[in-house]
């Protein structure tokens, strides 16, 4: 974890160091930083990169949770493969194992 101090300019503006902006891709057009103020008065900055509107569904909180569930199921060996569409349909109907 790296630590760096930045000065607060007029109107509360801060400038992130160039190497931090490049590393987190915050130099891309449309990039934003989410500001979270925790209950213990710690300020968190989270990089947010623009996503094409046609891809926004994939990055929704709900979809990402489903992706994590699938990753966990695959890691636990909870998956099956089928040689044909018919085999898949039989499995879905409960006729296959």
What does this structure look like?
With 97 residues, the protein is an alpha+beta fold. The protein has two domains: 1-50, Pemi-like Protein 1, Chain: D, CATH 2.10.260.10; 52-97, no CATH class. It has helices at 18-23, 61-75, 85-93; strands spanning 32-37, 43-48. A hairpin with a 5-residue loop joins strand 1 (32-37) and strand 2 (43-48). The chain is elongated.
What brief labels describe this structure?
97 residues, Pemi-like Protein 1, Chain: D, 2 domains, two-stranded antiparallel sheet
Query: Can you name the CATH architecture of the largest domain?
Result: Ribbon
Question: Biggest sheet: strands, sense, closure?
Answer: 2 strands, antiparallel
Task: Calculate Rg over CA atoms.
Answer: 22 Å
Number of helices: 3
């Amino acid at each position: 974890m790296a630590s760096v101090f930045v000065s607060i300019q007029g109107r509360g503006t801060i400038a992130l160091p160039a190497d931090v902006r490049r590393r987190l891709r915050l130099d891309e057009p449309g990039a934003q930083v989410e500001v979270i103020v925790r209950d213990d008065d710690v300020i968190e900055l989270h990089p947010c990169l623009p996503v094409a509107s046609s891809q926004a569904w994939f990055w929704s909180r709900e979809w990402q949770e489903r992706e994590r569930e699938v990753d966990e199921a695959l890691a636990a060996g909870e998956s099956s493969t089928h040689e044909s569409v018919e085999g898949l349909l039989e499995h879905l109907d409960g006729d296959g194992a």
